[in-house]
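Justification of resources, computational component.

The compute hours requested in this renewal are based largely on the per-chain cost of generating structure records like the one below. Each record pairs the submitted sequence with a full structure-token output. That output is archived, and it is also reused by downstream analysis tasks.
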Amino acid sequence: KQVVSTKSTWGRTTMAESTPTAEEAKAGFANRRSRSIEEVAGDELPENTPGYVAPRKASIREVLSKDADDESLNRYKAALLGGTTPAASGPLQVKVTRLSILCPERPGGNIVHDFTDAASHNLKKSPYILREGSTYHIQIDFNVSNDMVVGLKWMNFVYKHGFRVEKDEQMLGSFAPKPESQNVTLHEETTPAGMLARGNYTGKSRFIDDDGTVHFEYEYGFSIKKDWE
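The structure output for this chain reads:
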């Protein structure tokens, strides 16, 4: 499993929450279709890393055909694909199937958001509870089909009383298409503690790649309390 770093502003009040569209409000859930970065609000765009230039997008078949006589490179390509053969055609598809909050201290076990279940549409209306000062990891499960996804990022925004208190951006990596599910576990986080930290929050998460394609997004709610109940 891959553990990645973070850019987080947890605990800082920075700007007002944006108003969801009528369609999002009706669903209680952000649109699940892939969309362009041009449709994302300016304050929710990924941060640009100084000196970083996104690589030119190459299809998985271009990658496989390049330097075909290089034995060591061919072994690397085989390891990258896991012995699978990419689809002959079709656009890139990234389907996020599950997001788990791994809480070793939580009496009821981990908090799991199963996006293959229709009930996941009610995440904002069914908030979960985090105990103040508790530690947890985020694990993301997803499927990649037809082509390679380059520079997949997870962006997370948290709001309290209408103001944004966190913007978290994590680079998950680049992934080849595989028939089985892939996953990434993020580094350990600690829930804020104290009277000011307790209360009700809303959040929105987004998965976006270096091409600016938003593959998946959703909204949710949670509370920070003195205990797990």
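The chain is about 10% helix and 40% strand. The radius of gyration is 19 Å.
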